[in-house]
Every structure is written in C-alpha cells, then in structure tokens.
Amino acid sequence: MTEPQSLPYPSINAVGITGLPEIHDGDNLGRMIAEAAQNQGTPLIEGDILVVTQKIVSKAEGMLVSLDTVTPSQFAREYAENADRDPRLIELVLRESKSIVRMDQDRGVLITETKHGFICANAGIDQSNIPDEDVVCLLPIDPDASARRISAEINAVTGVAPPIIISDTFGRAWREGHVNFAIGVAGMDPLKDYRGTDDANGRILHVTTIAVADELAATAEMITAKAINVPVALIRGMPYQPDVGSTASLLRDRTRDMFR
Amino acid sequence: MTEPQSLPYPSINAVGITGLPEIHDGDNLGRMIAEAAQNQGTPLIEGDILVVTQKIVSKAEGMLVSLDTVTPSQFAREYAENADRDPRLIELVLRESKSIVRMDQDRGVLITETKHGFICANAGIDQSNIPDEDVVCLLPIDPDASARRISAEINAVTGVAPPIIISDTFGRAWREGHVNFAIGVAGMDPLKDYRGTDDANGRILHVTTIAVADELAATAEMITAKAINVPVALIRGMPYQPDVGSTASLLRDRTRDMFR
Q: Are B25 and B61 in contact, with CB atoms under 8 Å apart?
C-alpha cells in the first residue's frame, strides 16, 4: 500500500480539476489534465489518484458518432418505434452490446451487456455535453488501455504516474438514482480485500472485498457534476495497492451472477 | 442548496472520526460522535455531513442478538443444513425479511428484501466487530429515525444539526466487490436531480438523478475501513439540499424493478 498521511485521523481530499477546454479527437488528455491541475494551484503529487469522466476520454479518442451515418436494422426500427425512441440510437446500442439483459418496449428500457462486459442502459451511449444535436458518444473501446495511456501522458510531463479511474454514470438494480462506476482502471488494484484481516475484536474477517475503484468513482461524481465543467477529480490521501489495474476483476462472471 | 466553499475549484474533505469507545445499548451516540470530533481537533461546523456506519447505531439501539435465544424453523434448518450454515442465523435472516429475492443452497446465497426494503445478503445481519462469538447484529429497526435522533443529539451539544447518513456494506448485481450504501438518511435529500438543468453545451439534461446519499456512503467507506476503529466519517464541503430526508426515495418500487 502507498503511505497514508501523518494526521492522527484518516483524511481524504477530493478536488475538481477545472479549466480544461473542449476536448477533441487526438488531444493529449493526460498532459492537458496535468497542466490544468498545475494552473489551478493543485499540481499532481505522488499518491494522488485521478478520476476522469468517460465523456472526455471518448472525445479524445474520436468516439463521437453522427447518427446520420447509422442505418438501423429492422429489429432496431421495430423496437424504436414501439418504445418511441430514435432507431439510429437503438441500432448503435445493439452494435455496442454483446447481449441484451432487459428489453422492455413499453417502458423504453434497453439494458445490455456492453462488449467490455458492463451492464448498463443503452450500452453507455449518451448525448449530453456534446455540441451537435445529432451526435452521440460511445464508450472508449478499451477503457483500461485509455487509463494506462492517460497515466503515461501525465508521467511524461510531471514525472508522476498516478492511478487513473475512468468513470461513467450507471443505474443500479433495486435502487433509484444513478451513481458513478469505474469503467477503466490503471495503476491500482480496483478491489481492496479485507479477507484474512482482523476486525477490531481480533476476529478474522472472511467475506468482505470492497470495490474501491467504484467508491473512488462515486466520490468523484460529487465534484464532477454533470452540468458543471469539471470533468476530472483528484483524490489525495487515499492509500491504494499499486497494480497494473483492470476493470476485469470488477465484473462478475456470468456463471456467478444471479441477476441477469 | 447549502453554500459551496469559496475556492476556485470544488473541494470535498472526508475525515475519519477516531477515539470512540465500544458502543453499548442506550449510549447517546450523537453526543459521543460530537465529542470525539471535538477531541481530535475537527469540531463539527455548519455544512458538515456525517456518515455513521450501521454497526455502532445498532449497538446503541440494542440490536445485538444472542444466537442461543433463537429457535430455527424447519425451513431454516433444512436450508442451513444444505448450505452448511448456522440454522439460527438463517432463522434470524428470515425473520428480518419480507421477501426472498434469491436463495441458493448450493452456493450458500440468501439474498432477501429486509422489512425496510433493502435488498442485500443475509438481511444485513453480520458478525464482525462484535466481542462475543455467538452474538450477531441486526440492522436498526428504523434507520431514518436513528439518523434523525443522532442529528438531534449532536445539535443538543454543538448547536449544529448535521445531515446524517447511516451506511452499510452490500454487494451489487453484476459487479464484484461490496460498497457502502445509505440505509438511513436525515437532514438532506438523498437524491440530487439534474433533470431540467443545462449541460455544458446548454442542452437540457432530462434523465439523470444521482443517489448522492449512496455516494456519500461510498466515500465514507474509504476511511471507515472495517478493520480499523473509525466508525464515522465527516464530509466537509459537499453542498446538499436540506430536507427531512428518508431512504424511501432510494428504494425502487417493486413494480418498476426489473431485477428481482
């Protein structure tokens, strides 16, 4: 684990990175984030973790698609008509998915498993924070690779290679409201394992594994609010387990999953 | 909303409250938390939100049960035998539940809807951080009422009535690892509604409601780690919508839920 700070109590600070311009295909996002952090007086230091919202990563990777270029299949057209949705968007959702988890035309619900293995509405495609009305944004093709690249880009200008979490906003089973989840991880273990450790009474804990990457994403959402131009959060003071990092260990294997 | 701080970027600080003694039935938990915060040099101020882990709330409310006092039903005995689990614990899980969501004796899985409406393993009953081997801890009977009481107790000694989130650690559908969720809320709206607000491009956002109470609980887990004696987190700098508060709005109505 990285070293905790020296206060007599645990303390974590989450800071929004402001001042980033509109992101375009090919931008060096890591360098831009490092410079923005520097410019606002919170330069990156060893131990910091960065949570980067998916939208700017997708924009830097050219994942915007004009709906005019999409020809919907018959299946997409029929569902879209019954659900009162755009058939071109439905076609894209199907193309980005490897299986359909729930599809309900009366409610307009289309929850799929993306090619990455994320279970979410509309394969993570969305239309907010995009200048053009008829353009939508797909998830990065390989968000773990995106996270590794951003960390390397930051390292190239600062000498610090922070762990990177790429976050997106998903709904949940059973509960109202969305929260942010990790869809890409680099530089840290996304899981924190309490198994085999003692609790406060010396009893061995044997079941709890914490999805710390999802907790970091959730924390970051509180400052990277959708309507405000703060697409990155810097988390300082959170010890982590250095690791190559990958979201694969966050995805429950289909054979162990009782809820699809 | 409460006022954000005056920094040129958003910033949230989460601090663990240390130095609380072992909690017993009848303890004035709010006063003990306020005093512990004061003693460690982080006294509560207006705008702070407190996240209190469920275990100490249950202990203060006498929710510990000795398994010796529980006589399992035939249904509990048969499931426990096939799943290789303690029949007295299974009996308690059934008594605390209003429906069974998934029950699999081969995997030892028992996911229920608690009487409060939370969907989680074992009705939230657990055995960690309890001195006696044969004693387990139930969830508070009315965690929203618990949260209101703790806030009032704090107000009585500090003059500040902070929003209170009571948190517990649950698994999720589709994803590995547990995270903390809000099971009790007082003093703030647990949901943050972006519907009707503009995004950064002036386009109206129309779908996103964020479960900010769950995000606060997830943030707090990062410092109220299970194996460490830090049962409370103080969140400073997070604007919130004052409200009576209740977890009811976080629970998806059965008729809208596609995953039970």
A: yes
**Domain encompassing residue B77:** 65-135
Mention every residue, 6+ apart, whose C-beta is less than 8 A from residue B48: B160, B162, B234, B235, B236
Task: Examine residue B49 and state whether it is found in any structural domain, yes or no.
Answer: yes
The number of domains in chain A is 2
* In a shared domain, residues A156 and A232: yes
Q: Greater confidence, A246 or A204?
A: A246
Q: Which residues contact B137 (CB under 8 A, 6 or more apart)?
A: B55, B58, B59, B63, B64, B65, B125, B126, B127, B130
- Whether residue A144 sits in one domain with residue A102: no
Least confident stretch, A28-42, A159-173, B201-215: B201-215
Q: Contact B252/A176, CB-based, under 8 Å?
A: yes
Residue in chain A nearest B226 by alpha carbon: A199
Find out whether A233 and A48 touch, Cβ atoms under 8 Å: no
Radius of gyration (C-alpha) of chain A in whole angstroms? 19
Summarize the confidence of residues B221-229 as an average pLDDT: 77
Give the torsion through C-alpha atoms of A77, A82, A84, A85, to 10 deg: -30
Beta-carbon separation of A258 and B128 below 8 A: no
Q: Which residue has the tokens 């989450």?
A: A14
H or E element, residue A56: helix A54-60
In this predicted model, what pLDDT tens digit does every residue of A20-39 receive, in sequence order? Answer: 999 999 999 999 999 999 99
Same structural domain, B165 and B219? yes
Instruction: Identify whether residues B120 and B199 lie together within a single domain.
Output: no
Give the distance from residue B172's alpha carbon to the nearest chain A alpha carbon, in angstroms: 8
